[in-house]
Amino acid sequence: MAMSIRGLPDDVKTRLEHGAKQEGRSLNAHVVDILSRHADEKDTSLAVAKAYAGKSTYADMLEARKIEEEHALDWSMSYDDPP
């Protein structure tokens, strides 16, 4: 997919070029990385999954389940039906 950005302010272009140069990669690769990270940030479930991937232990899982059970909603219906 080809893409172009029109109307990019000069100071933004300069910062992007500087960032790409610091990281030793092309301007295109730098911009693709920034856009990809930003898209991930908007997908909160993906961001949370990435934040915790490989970091939780079995004990963490048990604690999470315990907290989940303690805060679970009671969906039982215990009321009298109207006549």
Classify the helix fraction into a percent range.
55-70%
Distance between the termini: 64 Å
* Major sheet attributes: none
Q: How confident overall, as mean pLDDT?
A: 80
Question: What is the number of strand segments?
Answer: 0
What portion of residues belong to β-strands? under 5%
**What is the radius of gyration computed over CA atoms, rounded to a whole number of angstroms?**
24 Å
- Oligomer class: single chain
Low-confidence stretches: none
Provide the succession of SSEs: HHHH
Q: So what's the overall shape? A: elongated
- Number of continuous helical runs: 4
Q: How would you classify the helix and strand content by structural class? A: mainly alpha
List keywords for this structure.
83 residues, 4 helices
Describe the structure in your own words.
With 83 residues, this protein is mainly alpha-helical. The protein is built from 4 helices and no strands. The chain has helices at 10-23, 27-42, 44-52, 58-70. Helix 1 (10-23) packs across helix 2 (27-42). The relative contact order is 0.05.
